[in-house]
Each structure stands twice: as C-alpha cells, then as structure tokens.
C-alpha cells in the first residue's frame, strides 16, 4: 500500500531553491522522473490500481507546487472523495467535499489561504492530470473519462484557448524571452508584436493554459473589444482569484493595487495576459484599455499586438515602469519561426484527427516524401501559422486536387487571393457574392435573413454564398423571441483587410451604391 505522505515528502525535497516565475516544461519533466524513480515507480509503465494512479498524479501535478495544497491532496479521505467524484463524473462533488474538509481543518485551510492558492484552479488541474494518467494505464476501470472542468478560465475564452493550443508546439525562444523579463524585472509590460497569423494569440493561449494567468482576448469577430468589456472580465477574475473585498466598482489601477497588497515574497506574481491590443475599439488618445502608466511590484502585463506606429501605439508608460518587446518579424527570429513551422506540419499530419489521414494519402499519392512536403509548405507559408491552418485542411479536403505541391499559393495573402479567384469574384455573373461580402465588411455581425432583406434577395441565395466562404466566417448563435438563429462575421481581421483592399468591394462602385443606401436605411431603422 502506497503512502501518499511519503510521495509528497519526495516532491517537497525537489522544491526549487528560489522562486521561479515560470518553470520550463523540460525542468518539470526531469524532476517528475527523478521523484518517480525515488519512489520506485516506473515513469512509463503505470499499474492500474487507483492508489498508484493517484500517486503518479500527485507527482506530475505536485512538482513545484506549494506545500499546503500537497498536504491537502495527500489525505486519504481526500483521495477517497476524489475517486467518488471521478466515478460519478461529478467534479463539483469533489469541490464540495474539499470545502467541507477544509472547514474542519482550520490550520491547513489557513496555510492554503496564506499561500494565495486558488483552490478551484488547483483542483481542476489535479483532476485533469489524473485523467491523463488514467488514460495511460489503458484500463477499463477508469472509463468513461470525466470532463474535469471547473470553469477556471472565463467561459467566453475557453473555446479560444482550447482551439489555439490544440496542436501547439515550439515557440520556446519567445517563452525564454518572457521568462527572462519576469526574472530580471520586479514589474512591467512585455509585448509580443507580429503580423496577422504569426501565432501571437496561440502563444498567449499557451501561457494562459499552462499557468492559469488572468486573461482577456480582444476578438474582433465577436464584437468583444471594448474597455468596458475588458474591465468587467478582469475585475471578475481578480475578485474570484484573490477574494478582493469592496472591488465591484474598482477601475483597473485600483484592482491591481489591491492584488499587489496581497502578494508576498513567496507568492506568485500577478501576470495579466491581453491578446490583440490593436483590436481594441476605444476613442480618444488615452492608453488602450486604460492600462496604468505605473505598476506596483509583482504586477506584470503580457500583451500581444500587430505592428504599430507612434499614433497607434497608445501605451504611454512612466520612465520607471520596465518594458520590453519581442517582434516576431525580426530577422533574428526568422529561422527559429521556420523551425517551429516545420515542427507543426508533421505534428498536424500525425495527430489531427479530422484531416491527418487524408493529408498523408495526398502526399503518398503524389510520391512526395514527407520531408519535401514539409520543407515546401513551410517555405510557402512564409512562417505564417494561419496559412497552415487554412492550407493543410484544404489539401486534405481535396481543394488542391489539380495542383502540384509547387503550385500552392504563396503566403497568407496569396491564399486569400487564390480563394477569391476560385470563387469567381471578378466575374460579372457573381455580383451577388460581391454584395454579400460587402454587407459583411460594412456591418460586421449580421444574419443571412438581414443580408437577404438588405439586398432584396432570397435567403437561400445568401446562405449559398456564405457557405462558399464558411472557413473565413464566425458563426454566432442568437435568440430572438425564443427562436434560435445564426449571425455571421468575418473571422479574422487579416481577411477583412484583404477584402477592404479589393477593387471589387470599393464603396465607390456603382453596384454597391444601392447596397450602401439599403444598409444606411437599415441602420436608421435600428436606431429609431
């Protein structure tokens, strides 16, 4: 019989000598293996006994964790409560039992509070690792695997984070620069700059998923990009995480000041991740999202944004506020990004459940080596991950059946242009397609029914056009009078910019003047 307290004792022995803000995955993996070996547990062959799986989970989860949370999870009654909740597919049942346990164990509860540990977040992560370990046993006793989620991330961003990190790989040079900044500065702003599709949002999502940082994604397609929306979300996250009192109406500066007063030398710092700062919709010249010029010790912002100039930067900081920036376009990162692209393509082929097999068949049918395929597609991508997210599924779906490998489009703009031509957008007979796209560009989020009303067309004709462009659109479910309907918007601003540059969609064109009048009439009716 394994003693969980002995497991925790071994984990604690390997605690880092000094506080580290971000532990590399390689460091953690190495320590996990050392602890398992000390406990005479095989890192690769896991017995299917529940207690043993729980012990493996304690090690994989517990390395570099605060001792207080480990003392909680080492309790046999806690393990029994966990297994009951797992078997019942009821994660929140475990949360309830933990709260009851801590209410009876005041000293341990006090230690967890003093450690500034968000218990909900820790229990979610522990449960997810247990599921991962259980899967590796391949034992039926752990079926069905529960979905162990406790709403750690804001619900509105969970799908974004999951999608952006699904096949994430590489970008270690970015993470190392981020770690270096956090190590050397006691506060500050770190900004990741890059063109559309270079992976900025995925990098942000990976950091959030791995370290549970408070976060906000400015999402153009969903109309989620105002200072008011940002403040409401961050305020709710910080109040929940740090149990802030009398903070319901606090502004950002007041919130982070209250958090900083709770931070001690042994606590993790406050790191807030904000994605797509350039997409914020905010009038005036003040700092975007009212980001503070000065920060208290232990408070950091990690930002991502497109390239900017002095007029569009809108981030004025005090000379005493540390700041640093990594521009993914810099020559020093070109080869590193290319290496990451070359890691992503074979990963997609091997692990994408929807398109991987068809992609392998496409490569084999043309007698192409995978190395040649990877090198060629990587070169054509121009280190743009969004290009890969379009082109690889496109190849798998047969969109380029008649093209040789060398005939694939060059870069993201080249990909957009090829689809534009394939849709016959420059032909007179396809004016309805031009009009539908113009409405999408001009209004933003809109339903097929409304587009049909504006253009005086049948709704089925509008839906047919939207179907041709579905991979570039975001579908949003809405309710009106109790009835469900769908609205659509352009998925990514890079595609919106591409459309705005097309002569065929120039508002001065004669065929679009009537559309403009119909849109203006609609907007007037909406404001009335």
Summed up:
The chain is built from 24 helices and 7 strands. It has helices at 4-13, 25-38, 50-62, 67-73, 76-87, 91-104, 106-114, 119-137, 155-164, 172-184, 200-211, 227-242, 252-262, 310-313, 334-351, 356-365, 370-381, 385-396, 411-422, 431-443, 448-455, 459-468, 493-500, 510-527, and strands spanning 188-193, 215-217, 270-275, 299-305, 323-327, 473-480, 483-490. The strands form 2 sheets. The chain has a 5-stranded parallel sheet with strand order 2-3-4-1-5.
How would you explain this protein's 3D organization?
This protein has four domains: 4-142, no CATH class; 155-329, P-loop containing nucleotide triphosphate hydrolases (Rossmann fold, 3-Layer(aba) Sandwich); 341-421; 424-527, Arc Repressor Mutant, subunit A, CATH 1.10.10.10. It has 24 helices and seven strands. The strands form two sheets. The chain has a five-stranded parallel beta sheet. Helix 4 packs antiparallel against helix 7 (106-114), helix 15 (334-351) packs across helix 17 (370-381) and helix 20 (431-443) runs parallel beside helix 24. The longest helix is centred in the first third of the chain and has 19 residues, at 119-137. It has 528 residues and is an alpha/beta fold. It is globular.
């Amino acid at each position: 019989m394994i003693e969980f307290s002995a497991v925790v004792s071994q984990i604690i022995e390997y605690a880092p000598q000094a506080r580290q803000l971000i532990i590399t995955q390689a460091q953690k993996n190495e320590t996990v293996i050392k602890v398992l070996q000390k406990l005479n547990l095989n890192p690769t062959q896991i017995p299917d006994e529940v207690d043993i799986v729980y012990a493996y989970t304690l090690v994989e989860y517990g390395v570099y964790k605060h001792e207080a949370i480990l003392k909680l999870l080492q309790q046999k009654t806690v393990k029994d409560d966990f297994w009951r909740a797992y078997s019942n597919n009821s994660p929140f049942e475990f949360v309830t039992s933990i709260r009851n346990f801590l209410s009876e164990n005041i000293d341990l509860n006090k230690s967890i509070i003093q450690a500034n540990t968000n218990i909900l977040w820790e229990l979610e992560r522990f449960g997810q690792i247990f599921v991962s370990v259980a899967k590796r046993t391949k034992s039926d006793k752990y079926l069905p695997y529960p979905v162990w989620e406790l709403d750690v991330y804001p619900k509105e961003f969970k799908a974004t984070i999951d999608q952006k990190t699904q096949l994430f790989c590489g970008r270690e040079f970015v993470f190392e620069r981020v770690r270096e900044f956090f190590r050397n500065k006691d506060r500050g702003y770190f900004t990741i700059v890059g063109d559309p599709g270079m992976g900025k949002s995925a990098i942000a999502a990976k950091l959030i998923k791995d370290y549970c940082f408070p976060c906000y994604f400015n999402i153009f397609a969903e109309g989620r990009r105002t200072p008011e929306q940002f403040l409401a979300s961050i305020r709710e996250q910080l109040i929940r995480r740090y149990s802030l009192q009398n903070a319901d109406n606090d502004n950002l500066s007041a919130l982070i000041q209250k958090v900083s007063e709770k931070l001690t030398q042994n606590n993790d710092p406050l790191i807030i991740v904000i994605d797509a700062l350039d997409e914020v919709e905010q009038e005036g010249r003040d700092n975007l999202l009212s980001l503070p010029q000065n920060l208290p010790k232990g408070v950091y912002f990690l930002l991502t944004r497109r390239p900017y100039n002095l007029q569009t930067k809108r981030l004025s900081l005090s000379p005493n506020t540390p700041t640093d920036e990594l521009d993914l376009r810099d020559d020093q990162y070109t080869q590193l990004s290319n290496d990451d692209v070359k890691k992503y393509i074979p990963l997609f082929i091997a692990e994408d459940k929807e398109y991987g097999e068809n992609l392998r068949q496409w490569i084999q049918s043309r007698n192409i080596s995978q190395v040649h395929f990877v090198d060629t597609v990587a070169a054509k991508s121009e280190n743009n991950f969004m290009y890969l997210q379009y082109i690889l599924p496109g190849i798998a779906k047969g969109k380029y059946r008649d093209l040789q490998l060398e005939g694939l489009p060059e870069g993201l703009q080249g990909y957009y242009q090829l689809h534009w031509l394939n849709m016959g957008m420059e032909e007179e007979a396809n004016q309805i397609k031009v009009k539908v796209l113009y409405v999408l560009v001009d209004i933003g989020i809109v339903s097929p029914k409304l587009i049909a009303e504006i253009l005086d067309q049948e709704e089925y004709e509008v839906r047919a056009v939207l179907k041709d462009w579905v991979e570039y659109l975001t579908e949003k479910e809405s309710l009106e009078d109790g009835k469900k309907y769908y609205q659509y918007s352009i998925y990514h601003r890079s595609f919106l910019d591409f459309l705005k540059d097309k002569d065929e969609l120039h508002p001065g064109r004669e065929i679009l003047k009537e559309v403009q009048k119909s849109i203006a009439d609609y907007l007037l009716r909406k404001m009335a």
